[in-house]
Amino acid sequence: MFLKEFEIRWSDLDANRHLANLSYITYAGETRMSFLQSLGLTHQKLIALGIGPIVFNEHLFYFKEALFDQKISVSTVLTGMSKDGTFFEFEHDFYNEQGANIARCEMMGGWMNLDTRKLTTIPESLIKQFEETNKTVHYKELTAKDTRKWNKIPKDLIQ
User: Fold this and answer.
1) pLDDT tens figures, 89-119
2) φ and ψ at 4, to 5 degrees?
3) Is the separation of the CB atoms in 105 and 76 below 8 Å?
4) Under a CB-based contact definition with an 8 Å cutoff, are residues 79 and 139 in contact?
5) What is the pLDDT of residues 131-150, one digit of tens each?
6) Does residue 56 contact residue 109 with C-beta atoms inside 8 Å?
7) Considering all CA atoms of the chain, what is the largest pairwise distance in Å, rounded to the nearest integer?
8) So what's the pLDDT on residue 31?
9) CA 7 to the chain's CA centroid
10) What CATH number should be reported for the domain holding residue 70?
C-alpha cells in the first residue's frame, strides 16, 4: 500500500471546521500523483508520452471527522485496470494518527492522449508496472462498460 501524510491546514477546513470535501478530493489526487511518480510516471515522462490521467468519477464515504492540526495518511491501491491500460480504478483510504480509517475515496479514470484529446492506451511497460503494484482483494479487469456503471448521461440545456 502506498501512503502519503498530510497535516490538515486551516485552509483545508469547511464552515464546520472539519476537513472539507474538496480537501479530501485534493489529498486523494496528490497521493495518486505521488504514487504514479513512484512508478516513474513523472511529469516529464507524461509529457514525453503525450498522455495525462483524467478522472471519470470520484465517490467519497465519510466515517469520522478530521480536524485542524491533525495529521492524516492517505493510501492508494489499484482496484482495477483494463487489459490495455486505458481505464484504471483506485481506492484511497484516509487514516487518522491512531490508524483508524476515517474516510474512503473510490476513483475511476483513464488515460488521455494530449494531442487528440481522446482516450488512449499506455505502453506495455507501464501496464507491467501497474500489474506488479499492490492491488485490492477485489481487483478486476475493467472494460469500457465498467466506466458507465453509474448509468449517467449528459443532460444538455435546451436552447
Assistant:
1) 999 999 999 999 999 999 999 999 999 999 9
2) -135, 140
3) no
4) yes
5) 999 899 999 999 999 999 99
6) yes
7) 54
8) 98
9) 19
10) 3.10.129.10
CB 93 within 8 A of CB 56: no
**Considering the entire predicted model, what is its pTM?**
0.93
Whether 146 maps to a domain, the answer reads no
Distance CA 68, CA 11 (A): 9
| Secondary structure string (H, E, C) spanning 12-28 | HECCCCEECHHHHHHHH
Cα gap 70→82, rounded to integer Å: 37
- Rounded distance between C-alpha atoms, residue 19 and residue 11, angstroms: 9
% of the chain at pLDDT higher than 90: 96
Q: What is the CA radius of gyration of the chain?
A: 17
**Does residue 147 belong to any structural domain of this protein?**
no
**156 domain-assigned:** no
pLDDT band for 17, please (50, 70, 90 cuts).
Answer: very high
Give the structural domain span for 85: 2-141
Cell numbers 466506466: residue: 147
Domain tally for the chain? 1
Give the angle subtended at the CA of 107 by the CAs of 103 and 108, to the nearest 5°.
Answer: 165
Any domain includes 151: no
